[in-house]
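User: If you would, consider this record:
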Amino acid sequence: MPPPPPPPAPPVPGTNLVPSYKEQQKTALVSREVRWEDKFPLHCAAQCGSVPRLREMLGSAHWRCPAVINALDDDTWSPLHYSAWYGWSDCARMLLACGADHTVANLNGGTPLHFAAGCGQLELVRVLLEAGADPAICNHDKMTPSAVARDLQPRQWQTVKAVLDLCFWMMPKREQWHDCLLGLKFIPRNQSTALTFTAYR
């Protein structure tokens, strides 16, 4: 067996084991990886559903610039994608009112309407449709928002699919969408069956 390594040399008297100020500064000045929430603060506010933070940011003309409010993050999601995914309807309304584009698509061609439908966010689907989102738009997999809802089957997916299908068939009468969506009533036949339309204007 080889002999064990020698013990470390004892410190020289009069020397300080604490790094000097310059050495500490060199360590502190090493560039750190930028965090996502620092790089994309508007996306972060939309993801968290922080209405006060979003209102504060959108009060500045810089954040309302189309290139900024519709910017895609590293995952190719816009702030409106995050609001649609997490179901923050107030944030989505605020973004749309400040110029967010509901047609912006991610890397897979998914629009905020695809995201809202895929997550079963009924209120978000209504908000986006009233803003003029196209229920017939397809992603790169050739799937409409209605098809995404049917394929993923999230909560309220049957109601979401019914709303999207109704608006798809009413596309020639797009100006009546708002009244139609406001007049929808959903009544369950029983606890296990789908929600169905009972009346609409």
Q: What stands out?
A: Strands lie at 185-188, 195-199. Residues 182-201 have pLDDT under 50 and may be disordered. The longest strand covers residues 195-199.
